[in-house]
Amino acid sequence: MIGHRGTPEDENTLRGLEDAANAGASGVEFDVWWTQDGVPVLSHDPTVDRTTTGHGPVAGMTSAQVRALRTKRGEPVPTLEEALRVAVERRLTAMVELKPTPTPSQLRSLLSVIRATGAAPYVVVHSFNADAVKAVRRAAPELRTALTHQKTKISGAEAARYGTSLNVSRFLVTPDAVQDWHSAGLKVYTWTANWPPAWEKAKAAGVDAVLTDRVGPYKEWARTACGAGTTAAP
């Protein structure tokens, strides 16, 4: 099970990543934008307005300016390097979502940070932007990558063009679809599953892992599900 953005209380912060791990997550998912001076930092939105006390686009600020900000709960905005060091230390799967399609220099910085932190074995680079995933696959075919997909059906053959995994909306998850994706050699993640009916559906379909905002409650549910002789997605 993957902590979506770490935790909703402290999304895309080191505290959120640590809290998700402490609650029992085997991985964390977080979002990446680049600053004006080319440093990858964690942010879901293109601006810092919603999640911090600051204002303006991430891409219009230097890394120093972003680092000086605080979330509304007092946490700093982490760099990708800091987040990956937590993942490596805690042995967490790190689902790194690229929000924009990176420029060549941004792509180099992404790969440099992944390699410098030793995070390659833990990382799954994913994006809604097919071009972003393709760019990473071309530059670093050794990395695990995934298309993040919603709204329309996608075949295993199509999804496999983008990597070794598929990160798919829970509304598209069915046993037949998961079987097709598995037959194409893909690991299947589904998002964002926050309540028992969605967890039950994902389990019945045979997904490999769920992304959830509710790590603790999911762990409690999974213990009950497994105790009943079934297997929940990890």
UniProtKB/TrEMBL annotation:
Gene3D superfamilies assigned: Phosphatidylinositol (PI) phosphodiesterase (3.20.20.190)
CDD domains per the UniProt record, alphabetical: GDPD
Domain annotation GP-PDE: ranges: 1-222
Protein name: Glycerophosphodiester phosphodiesterase
Transmembrane segments: none
Cross-referenced Pfam families: GDPD
Top-level taxon of the source organism: Bacteria
Alphabetized InterPro entries for the sequence: GP_PDE_dom, PLC-like_Pdiesterase_TIM-brl
